[in-house]
Amino acid sequence: MWSWSLPFMFESDVTNWVVIGLVLSLLELVVPGVYLIWFGFAAFAMSVLVWFSPLVLTTQLIWFAVFSAVFALIGLYAYGYIFKKAKAPEGYSHLNDSAAQYVGLTVTVAEDVADNQTKVKIGDTVWLATTAKNLKKGDTAKVTDVKNNLILVIE
């Protein structure tokens, strides 16, 4: 019976799938993201399947799609499990939320309050702030909350 094979330079389908797996695995080192390795694993699984049961090209591609979906789901579960277990140390909890680190800090009011808004000085930076109190320039207030990572709520 005549069968199709993958149109690559190797005559063996097993070798072709191993090469595809190696290329996808090596591309994982270059391409950003963490997904090509799972397709590489699917290609390696295909090489094992083709080793034990020679298949026509169409059947090989269908099985590769199935293996790819299975390994992608395994990768999704594995990364979800890893990221769920990974907790940032307490000192780094506000690493990407620069305004939240100021909650509880006493600040100096940089402008008089107008329409419940003012500016406060924190270090060498001036932040927008909202307050219900009628504060004057130079008064001190405490940061109680952050809204939209920009506006400090003070009292």
Description of the molecule:
- By secondary structure, this protein is of the alpha+beta class.
- It folds into two domains: 13-85, no CATH class; 94-154, Nucleic acid-binding proteins (OB fold (Dihydrolipoamide Acetyltransferase, E2P)).
- 41% of the residues lie in helices and 18% in strands.
- The longest helix is centred in the middle third of the chain and has 29 residues, at 57-85.
What key attributes describe this structure?
155 residues, alpha+beta, OB fold (Dihydrolipoamide Acetyltransferase, E2P), five-stranded mixed β-barrel, 3 helices, 18% strand
Short description:
The chain is an alpha+beta fold and 155 residues long. It is 41% helix and 18% strand.
Major β-sheet annotation: 5 strands, mixed, barrel
Give the helix proportion (percent range). 40-55%
Separate helix tally: 3
The arrangement of helices and strands along the chain is HHHEEEEE
Mean pLDDT: 84
Q: What structural class do the secondary elements suggest?
A: alpha+beta
What's the total count of β strands? 5
Distance between the termini: 84 Å
User: For the largest beta sheet, what order do the strands appear in spatially?
Assistant: 1-2-3-5-4
The number of domains: 2
Give the low-confidence spans: none
Q: Over all CA atoms, what is the radius of gyration?
A: 29 Å
Proportion of residues in β-strands: 15-25%
Shape category: rod-shaped
* Multimeric status of the protein: single chain
